[in-house]
Every structure is written in structure tokens, then in C-alpha cells.
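[stage:ingest] chain + small molecule (PRP)
[stage:ingest] validated
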Amino acid sequence: MTNLQLDCDTSRLTVVDHPLVQHKMSVLRDKSTSTKDFRQLVTELSILEGYEALRDLPLEDVEVETPLEKMVGKRIAGKKLAIIPILRAGLGMVDGILSLAPSARVGHVGLYRDPVTHEPVEYYHKFPPYLDARTCIVVDPMLATGGSLVAAVQFLREAGAKDIRALTLVSCPEGIKTVLDSDPNVRLYTCAIDRQLNERAYILPGLGDAGDRVYGTR
Ligand code: PRP
Ligand code: URA
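[stage:predict] done
[stage:export] C-alpha cells:
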């Protein structure tokens, strides 16, 4: 679903490029956008992206009695979703997905990038039970080298997760390839594919440090 030449299995990549998403992404990137607005936009974008990522959730029949008669409707089948934010910035995307699936379970992966090696360093993870029976939605606004997302997917696989969908807002080609090559089944959704990484492994043009912008820590 992208015109970019990416040397990886792009059948598992979806770029969510609805006009509303593109508009909101431009405001999100703007360095003059306030912390309050940034946070709100991350939530709104997560809803729009999540709607797309949950498009093929399994359904089952349910009998409904309307005020006029009985009918057979549909409801989401199976166990509740698991939303897995990568701390810290991923937390900013949780409320948006929860507004679509209010009963979802929420796990956490704590990772930060070593400032010199850019390798992810784990400091925490805790997941809901029965991951093998849940659709797992990993959320993190930024996919740069891919190290953090690869580590999160690996933890989830080790915990038994089968259906893993990762949602990012801004990605770069290098990170996309790293993630899709690292796991044969993970599905990746992003709202934008940016040009490249700089020497500090920040995405260009990107939006800066997502965690700092969500929490106003810079
Ligand atoms: C950012 C971002 C991702 C990671 C992406 O987190 O939220 O988790 O970097 O980079 P990668 O693809 O090269 O691994 P950061 O480590 O800055 O932590 P924070 O969210 O706590 O600020
Ligand atoms: N993490 C961020 O927050 N921004 C980037 O550009 C890269 C990693």
C-alpha cells in the first residue's frame, strides 16, 4: 500500500493516509503545536488509525430484540483486545484505542533508547493473560531504527501472542524493514513514512521527540 521502494514484505504494511489523518499529522509535526494540542492530536490520530487496524476483527452472530422484532446482528467475537503501549510515548495512544474498544486489556513494555548505541533498553514489561487468544495492538508514535518495536514484538511472542498489529504515527524506511523482517507475521500500520534517520537516529522530517512532546518534558 505504498509507492516507496521498500525491500521487505509490504503486504503486512498499511499506510493510513485518509485526508483527516494527513491534516492532523501536519499540525502534530509543527513545532509550535502546544503540549495540550499535541496530546489531543495523538489521541485523535490513534482513533483513526485504530479504526483501520481493527477492520478485520472476527465477528459472531448475536440475537438482538429491537423495539419492533428480533433480528440477528453481529458482535466482536473472542477475548478482549490487548493494547500494549511502549513507554513512554506509546501511552499517549492508549486512550484513543480504548475509546474504540473500551473493555480492552492494557499491558506495558518499558523501553528507552540508549543515547549512544540507540539500542533499546528494557526496564519493565507486564502483559494481560491469554495473549494467544487476543488481538494485540502495540502502540508507539515513532518507528525509527525499529529496535524498540522489534523488542516489544519479541516479548509478546515469548508470552504467546499470535495476532500482533503495531500502530505507529511516523515511521522511516529503515525501521519498517527492520520490523517486518524481524517477524514473519507482525502487521504494521503507520500514518506517514518519512525520509530518513539523522545521525542521532531521529526521524527526518519527523516531529522531534514524541515522549517529550506528549509529556512536555522539554
Ligand atoms: C522513542 C519512541 C520509540 C523509540 C523509537 O522512545 O517512542 O519507543 O524511541 O526508536 P527506535 O525505533 O529507534 O527504537 P524513547 O526511547 O525516546 O523513550 P520515551 O518514549 O520514554 O521518550
Ligand atoms: N524517537 C522519537 O521520539 N523521535 C524520533 O524521531 C526517533 C525516535
